[in-house]
Amino acid sequence: MFLQQLINGLTLGSVYALVGVGYSLVYGVLGLINFAHGSIYTWGAFFAFTLLAYTGTPFPLAFLLAMGATALVGAIVERMAYYPLRKSPLMSQIVAVLGISIIMDNLAMLIWGSEAQAFPSVMGSQVWTFAGVRISLLQFLIMGAGIVLMVALYFLVYQTKVGAAMRATSLDADAASLMGINVERLRLMTFTLSAALAAAAGTLIGAYYRTVIFNMGYGVVIKAFVVAILGGMGNVVGAMLGGLLMGLIECFGAAYIASGYKDAFVYIVLFLVLLLRPNGLLGTYEKEKV
Known about the structure:
Strand 2 (127-130) and strand 3 (133-136) form a beta hairpin. The chain has 11 helices and 4 strands, in the order H-H-H-H-E-E-E-H-H-H-H-E-H-H-H. The longest helix has 29 residues, at 2-30. By secondary structure, the chain is mainly alpha-helical.
């Protein structure tokens, strides 16, 4: 029972980590709480669904194409909705983000319908059993894809000049601009990367639960927010760990206490983290001069 829930938790946590990392990236670089992240996640899932269901595209290719198409959508959203408001008051930006989320969800409903759609099977029903623990090929795929994407992102953020520019912009955008960093282009790239990660998560969760619906991002954006807080807002590694922790909490809580309260367990842990360590698991306190 324990090992089975561990596998289930890591599978689900891999998806939450991808969503949370993208959310945390946008906050770290743009300073924006992106409540439209769930809608972008939904569009990524539907792009993959369309390719698989209507064109017969192989899943690996559909996965990459969905990430690319959603990255383009993310770039359009950033340029048309967020960029013009970059110097507006925070409340105006939050209202704009919520408006974009509603527009995207309604467009998804108009294009793909209001009913849930059956996501095509991508890996069959092959399952292995080891010491009473059942592991499916799809679970291996989800965990493997999550690990590969998170390692690639970690390398980008902490081992490349682009990543150094991201971290510099996150600390002080004005100083980064003075040092020759094209902050606006970097923000666009960050938002685009965040959208691609959301698409990857949406595609994987659609394949896992075998269904997609136009409002599937509603709950996910709240969980992404929780993941980012758990790990420390703007901290990429923290978001990865926060996502895995959330998946484990949900699965163990549902298995050992009550499945109907699995979401409540996550928020209880969030409350305790905020109470004992308000800056998150890997967040740090920062002193600012006013």
